[in-house]
Amino acid sequence: MSTAPAHRMNEANGGPTVVRILLGGHLRRLREARGLTRDAAGHVIRASESKMCRLELGRVGFKARDVSDLLTLYGVSDEERASLLEMTREANAPGWWQHYSPVLPTWGEAFVALEEAASVIRAFEIQFLPPLLQTDDYARNLLALQHPDSPDAETSQRVSLRARRRQLLDQPYGPQLWAVIDEAALRRPIGGAEVMRAQIDHLIQTAETYQHITIQVLPYSKASHVTCPGFTLLRFAERDLPDVIYLEHLTGALYLDKPDEVQAYRVAMDQLTIYALTPADSLAFLHSL
Q: Nearest-CA neighbor of 234 among 125, 121, 133?
């Protein structure tokens, strides 16, 4: 019986980035089953141990010839070989977000792909509203502040990208979104009163309409309990994909997936949901605001 993973990935559930991670993990397990080191396997495809590590983590692209040579080394059956070579082709396919590459930094491409693949997205935002919950007007004003030297066309493209990401929430395969929003983010007047009023109304409509979206407000009175930065926790239905913590900063982002690191943020997120207003009280707060 073939042990090749189910992999019919497409742009609806993470695209080539996720396929690359799944393929890398499968190649790692095949190597370990044969009792081979990364250095020994890498010698066959003229790759260093560090490159083999990046391949098995899905952080670089795959050459079909390299994968074929590794599968021969690992003694993979014809049926499983065909499936894994098909995965290789899918892993090298372009994702829809590549259309936005002029305004999407390389460190952001991985997040967009993982966001699409996630079954659960838990976010804590301190300064601004979660991107998936932003209106176009709010996003436009925020992005103009963050990229003051960008021409209007680039800002419009960034707004379009954010709108494209929001479509995920309306899909039948879309993730559960659970957002904890600091009160400061709700009171920061991005774009002025009218933009913020429409934005808060959008949050209300979203909370009242979508059963798979939970919004909680962390009030000022509980701010002293919070010592962590804003972050996003991504969880996946695919068992081969570990939870990922995404931390964005001014010029890049960190992706944490080591169990102890993820657990620390998971505990922090659970505490935040306790300190925050309940979903019902948060909705009442938004109405009053």
A: 121
Examine the domain organization and report whether 222 and 152 are in the same domain: yes
122, 258: one domain: yes
Residue 47, domain CATH: 1.10.260.40
Number of domains in the chain: 2
Q: What is the pLDDT of residues 58-101, one digit of tens each?
A: 878 899 999 999 999 999 999 899 999 999 998 888 888 889 99
Is residue 64 helix, strand or coil? helix
Q: Residue 172: inside a domain, yes or no?
A: yes
Range of the domain at 59: 15-93
Alpha-carbon Rg of the chain, whole angstroms? 21
> Residue 197 corresponds to which tokens in the numbers above?
């009023």
Domain for residue 24, yes or no? yes
Contacts of residue 112, Cβ cutoff 8 Å, sequence gap at least 6:
95, 97, 104, 165
Host H or E run for residue 84: helix 78-91
CA dihedral 79, 81, 83, 85 (to 10 degrees): -150
Q: How far is it, in rounded angstroms, from Cα 35 to Cα 155?
A: 52
In this predicted model, what pLDDT tens digit does every residue of 133-186 receive, in sequence order?
Answer: 999 999 999 999 999 999 999 999 999 999 999 999 998 878 999 999 999 999
Beta partners for residue 182, in sequence order: 218
pTM (2 decimals)? 0.82
